[in-house]
Amino acid sequence: MIVKHPRDYVIDNLQYALNPKSIAVVGASRYSTKVGYKVVDGLKLWGYKGDIYPVNPRADKVNGLKAYPTVKDIPEEVDLAFLAVPAHIVKSVLEDCVAKKVKIVVIATSAFKEIGRGALQDELTQYCRDNKLPLIGPNLVGMGSPYLDFNCGFIPYLPIKGPVAMISQSGANLLAALGSSQKDHYGMSFFVGLGNKADVDFCEFISYAGRDKDTKCLAVYIEGLDSPDAFIEACQNVNKPIVTIKVGGSKIGEKAAFAHTASENAGTSDAFYDEVFKKAGAIRATTWEEFLDISMALGMQPPAKGDNIVMITNGGGSGLLSCDHFERRGMPMHELNEISPSLSDRIRAYMPMFGSPLNPVDISGTASPIQYKGAFTQAMRDPNVHGIIGSICPTAVTDVDAVTDLVIRIHDTYRHLGKPFIMECQGGNECQEAILKLRDHGIPAYATAEQAVNAMVALYQYGKISKGHK
Amino acid sequence: MIVKHPRDYVIDNLQYALNPKSIAVVGASRYSTKVGYKVVDGLKLWGYKGDIYPVNPRADKVNGLKAYPTVKDIPEEVDLAFLAVPAHIVKSVLEDCVAKKVKIVVIATSAFKEIGRGALQDELTQYCRDNKLPLIGPNLVGMGSPYLDFNCGFIPYLPIKGPVAMISQSGANLLAALGSSQKDHYGMSFFVGLGNKADVDFCEFISYAGRDKDTKCLAVYIEGLDSPDAFIEACQNVNKPIVTIKVGGSKIGEKAAFAHTASENAGTSDAFYDEVFKKAGAIRATTWEEFLDISMALGMQPPAKGDNIVMITNGGGSGLLSCDHFERRGMPMHELNEISPSLSDRIRAYMPMFGSPLNPVDISGTASPIQYKGAFTQAMRDPNVHGIIGSICPTAVTDVDAVTDLVIRIHDTYRHLGKPFIMECQGGNECQEAILKLRDHGIPAYATAEQAVNAMVALYQYGKISKGHK
Q1: Does the keyword field hold Ligase (chains A, B) (predicted)?
Q2: Residue that terminates a domain, selected from B255, B271, B298
Q3: Which of A385, B50, B161, B356 has its CA 20 to 30 A from that of B328?
Q4: Nearest Cβ partner of A253 from B323, B426, B432?
Q5: In-domain check, residue B3
């Protein structure tokens, strides 16, 4: 439902959704296959340190914990009430929550506006707003943070710790990102599903993430904005990179977005959202992969202060994929001799005669760690260079491990220069291991050239946006 | 160098490059860090069954094998001569190969036309053409086939067996694909690096792959075509899907393509290549990931006979990413009730009330294997449905293993219907395992919705191309 501006009482209370001291799980089931059981189980399994109060009128105990018939029967204070009860019971539970002075409620339950029960949903929203009880949801999967060992919902994983706060209307895609986090070391500060966003809106979570000390970048998945002006206002007040992905813009997608999270897209268009994101200073990703790739880069690396990007590779083919993709993305590469007078000669010292000191710089498939080091160092130290993409292709003579380790050392040595550094490592299992190790050391690393280019383009875009901020 | 048409003597002799009974490795080194050593070592390591003759005038033995001073000194017949010697020696080795009646030569050596020695390269080409000795290269990484345990070059991996023949000017990108094969189960029939393609051209390898029984799809990476007409002629005569990726189209890429494989792109444009590929009936990929993704799908699945694609997912978000991407790719999805009168009702039986029988079909995050089975079966059996994308999102109650196994059974059961079936499985390690298992069973499976959509779009495009063939 529409909000005119981000509401302070909501933003202030979001701490109780993401860092609660106590949680009532309403609809906690005794049966391990039920979602109501999974919530309590997930909290315990992942190490939640606060108090858990299962609420179930037909049980004395749930998962080893004392259960209460209603929220009102809980003897201690309740920060967060997490509701996994049938839709028709929700209203009475909310009344209990108001009576109990719960700080915030999360409604996981589905079957509201997305199946035509808009009036029922609006009634809940109005009731919560009248009582200044922020409501997250309904129709969502949950939230959590790896920094707090907090996993609250129907969520099989916690992500690894990292810079990105993910705010997602879709539960499925949020779970996909959490899985990627585990598998591909995409680090997060916190995550939250918004579902139908009947009350708490994007703008409020964006404001909260702007203040969160662990969050360096916001990744926002949107099926429909009810309040574009409040969204723009919130984004403009956050001095961190914001990446968005907007779905539901296709003809059939408009209906699917309503059926999924009751998102309304009638009368909007992709161009409208382009304009909203431009005003907001947010960077829009097109595909899910790009959404993850560029939010990671923006969370880990400083912005590029210009478009003098040098790519250093031992594979001419990956260089070609990169420079074509840079041009496709509207940010063509420049030759070394256009970037800096003697850079080409200085780099040539670190390659065989059949290498190419153009740009991309092809130090050839025979490149040793020493040659990589020399080329990287020359590019890093050159004041005209605004950013570096390194690339490792596993030829029969490439020492992937050694090059990975030296890249980490170079990155640490020159971090104070504030130049973005991105790696591409295309190949088999040893390359995947290199990617994970690089990511663990704060270097965005990818399996294809185009992903690395997308990341650098985003860092350049954010350089321009953040300049406008000042 | 230009060829007017694919040459029969070349095509016939390519069997000696990809399935030789005997190989002379000229420039075979005794020192294990040298590339000349790696070639002999790779042949032995990966189980090559034929005879290996190292050629090295300063060694009696190389890697445990008797070495010969020159090719002419080898007492037995030589099918293939693989040259890893300095550029200035190549001509005299070619003379020995002609004298020895070698069937085909591969020149791995770099430092020819790509560094300005075009005249030297042309001289070698002319010499080989005058003597009807096909020359592959120079400036390449090697070739091989997993079906023959054959790995000939500076290549750290063999791919897994599968349907795709990869023909690549770039060695680095070829190695990346071989690594992906191992890591992501991208199966290949054979692979070859073309390098500078001084003599043997794309058209001849395409013709060869057209006849190869293990090849179901051709994946062709191009930095520049010397002979577009011969390329078109060869493609038109191959009744298998052909996927291309063309680099070197950007301003800086044009120079980089010359510096890499002496590829000439002056005066051409992306539009020119679009036209070439259209005439050829080849499908052009934009990014490296798409190149691998769609070639795998075309190698594994039948073409889509129409655009009535049904997507079945337990994640509304992945459905939205998909339908938006289908529209972005110019192939919008249709609602179930447009595709087939009662399909929506029949599928609704397999989802909860908050699921959505639109299309994408959202059977919801609570979907069981039984519900997946019912929905898949309804879509598969409906004669109006031309193809299916299935999607698994790992919610806390999703049995990823069970759904994966049932997908494999459904695919086997209905394979005779000739409908393409593609899977998406977004999430953590269990999803990556599901993807590998599905691929091993002939089902193209991907980690993101957009990749699955790209694959289905390619199957539809090939459906139209192959109809034109008849």
Answers
A1: yes
A2: B298
A3: B356
A4: B323
A5: no
